[in-house]
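User: Can you recover a sequence for this backbone? Please restate the input before giving your answer.

Assistant: Of course. Working from this structure:
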């Protein structure tokens, strides 16, 4: 007998399997989640208005993107509120933030948190243990999306502006919230990087997304459990966004703007679709993942204190004592009456389950 997916996910920091839309969500949870979504959306609208200096720096051509980010903010807040309303996720959320802000943890391991943020969130070293190819592909997608987000969102909201000092270039100024940050020449290396940052992001994303798409077409294990809308659509969306973005640059440089309007509309539709889809699909793990850093810190500080819990059957070490107790608490929150199984190692769970089958189930066929 093993822990249910929800309990294991809450204890380990992995995102729990998605539930069907609206399934098992009480009305009070839905109301609170909707209220959270509305509040976050209003705050973003206000940030757009004031960050663009009362829309003075807002580009009306980017209005569809800005509207999509407001829907994105609502969806993320709504889904996150629903997620942490579940007992297992709520325990993960509280324990993670408690560890994050604990001065005792900071005194015991002052460098632990920065290292975990770098290795767990930034470089995702845990993926390297599964496959170096998957890790490399994930890194390409991750850093490509980070770069694209850092450029796209502030530009869409009117927070970043690029203005020409002479009216026609090549000298430009980058301003944030109306304040000059840096001046650069569009014809030098810095200028090229400034104006082609999204192209660089697309070049990073395309090979990573294509690798995962290829893997989901060829790997038998991936094919068995995949779903088109949940597993394939995100990858296709990333590829379409990246390819159309590169084609826009190709059209403006080599085709003198030929087909630019069609490509711009196609690019906009793909971006808007992806932003609205993000909170309700596989991309939501981007929002969930930071919450797991606190749980990793919780486990790490337990190891520092040498609080290792041993299996009740074989006495092999399982994990830290606080971690095992947290897992038991999660199972109790979920009204599962076998939380004592958290005190056995995986091998002993399989042995006990097999013994129970032989003595109780198979016995009935004699």
């Amino acid at each position: 007998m093993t822990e249910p997916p929800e309990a294991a996910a809450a204890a380990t920091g992995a995102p729990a399997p998605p539930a069907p839309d609206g399934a098992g969500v009480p009305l009070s949870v839905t109301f609170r989640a909707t209220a959270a979504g509305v509040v976050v959306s209003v705050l973003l609208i206000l940030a757009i208005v004031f960050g663009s200096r009362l829309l003075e720096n807002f580009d009306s051509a980017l209005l569809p993107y800005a509207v999509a980010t407001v829907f994105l903010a609502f969806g993320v807040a709504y889904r996150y509120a629903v997620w942490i309303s579940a007992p297992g996720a709520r325990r993960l959320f509280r324990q993670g933030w408690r560890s994050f802000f604990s001065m005792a943890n900071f005194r015991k391991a002052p460098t632990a948190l920065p290292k975990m943020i770098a290795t767990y969130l930034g470089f995702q070293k845990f993926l390297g243990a599964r496959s170096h190819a998957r890790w490399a592909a994930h890194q390409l997608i991750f850093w490509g999306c980070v770069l694209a987000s850092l450029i796209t969102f502030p530009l869409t909201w009117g927070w970043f502006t690029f203005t020409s000092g002479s009216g026609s270039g090549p000298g430009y100024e980058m301003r944030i919230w109306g304040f000059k940050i840096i001046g650069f020449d569009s014809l030098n290396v810095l200028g090229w990087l400034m104006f082609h940052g999204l192209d660089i992001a697309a070049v990073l994303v395309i090979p990573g997304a294509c690798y995962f798409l290829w893997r989901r077409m060829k790997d038998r294990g991936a094919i068995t459990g995949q779903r088109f809308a949940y597993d394939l659509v995100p990858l296709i969306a990333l590829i379409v966004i990246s390819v159309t973005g590169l084609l826009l640059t190709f059209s403006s440089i080599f085709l003198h703007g030929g087909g630019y309007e069609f490509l711009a509309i196609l690019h906009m539709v793909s971006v808007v679709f992806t932003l609205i889809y993000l909170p309700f699909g596989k991309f939501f793990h981007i929002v969930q993942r930071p919450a797991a850093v606190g749980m990793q810190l919780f486990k790490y500080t337990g190891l520092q204190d040498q609080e290792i819990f041993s299996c009740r059957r074989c006495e092999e070490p399982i994990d830290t004592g606080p971690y095992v107790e947290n897992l038991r608490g999660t199972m109790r929150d979920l009204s599962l009456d076998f939380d004592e199984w958290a005190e056995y190692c995986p091998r002993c769970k399989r042995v006990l389950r097999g013994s129970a089958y032989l003595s109780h189930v198979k016995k009935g066929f004699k």
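That completes the design. The first strand starts at residue 160 and ends at 164.
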